[in-house]
Amino acid sequence: MRRGCFITLEGPEGAGKSTVARGLQAELERRGVSVLLTREPGGTPLAEKLRAVLLQKGGESITPQAETLLMFSARALHVTNLIRPALASGRWVICDRFTDASYAYQGAGRNVPTILIDQLADAVHGDLWPDRTLLLDLPVADGMRRVRERNTGTDRFEQEGLAFFERVRQCYLQRATADPQRFRILDAGQDAAAVLAAAVAALPAASGP
Ligand code: TYD
To answer: What is the pLDDT of residues 18-61, one digit of tens each?
Structure first.
């Protein structure tokens, strides 16, 4: 059986990734493609527990290295127990964040050495990288404003300041520029319908009927 396509969504807080993810799922299902919509950190019962640990504010401080290892623990469960089996059965996987987020948030954001992230990525998912990554790019201040307007409270990451998110954004843009085969950069400042249309247009060619 032909392996499904692995698509990831990346971008800053407030870029609208989850709305685009749901829209892509609906579009692909309309074309007869079976889609697993999932997210990181999380996606499996145990990985979702690690997500809760990672996003919770207060309590014992999580060092950057521990944060990185927890992200990759969650990813190891997710890749092995959910993503690989789904792809092997021919389903497409749309994942809200993946290892690019570890380079952006832990690497650029928290100054965790890139070599550690390289090694963890290699150990945890080796040859498995997304077939396509949609980077929903947005100026940092605009994303932060959207998070505030959402009014759902902030998680441990959303408490960070402008400089942190600027490093995250620049890292994403650098990674996208370095690998134009895999990445497509979308302007997340447009209205939701326009962002979704651009995301649909950026799907790999194999998604045709
Ligand atoms: P996300 O679900 O995208 O949060 P939101 O919907 O509020 O944007 O991601 C949760 C947080 O986890 C987000 O702030 C980014 C962070 N994160 C990392 O720091 N490293 C990672 O490897 C991943 C996957 C996420």
So the answer is: 999 999 999 999 999 999 999 999 999 999 999 999 999 988 99
User: Can you list the alpha helix ranges (DSSP code H) found in the chain?
Assistant: 17-30, 45-55, 64-78, 84-88, 99-101, 114-125, 140-150, 162-178, 192-201
Q: How remote is the CA of residue 153 from the centroid of ligand 1, in Å? A: 15
> Which atom of ligand 1 approaches the CA of 98 most closely?
24
* Bridge partners of residue 38, in order along the sequence: 95
Domain ranges of the chain: 6-207
Cα distances (Å, whole numbers) of residue 148 to 13, 124, 153, 167? 10, 34, 8, 20
Q: Which of 25, 19, 152 is closest to 92 using CA atoms? A: 25
Atom 11 of ligand 1, residue of closest alpha carbon:
157
Fold of 6-207: Rossmann fold (3.40.50)
Under the banding of pLDDT at 50, 70 and 90, the label for residue 208 is very low
Pocket flag, ligand 1, residue 103 (CB < 6 Å)? no
pLDDT digits (tens, 9 = 90+) for 60-112: 999 999 999 999 999 999 999 999 999 999 999 999 999 999 999 999 999 99
For ligand 1, is residue 4 a contact (CB within 6 Å)? Answer: no
13 CB less than 6 Å from ligand 1?
A: yes
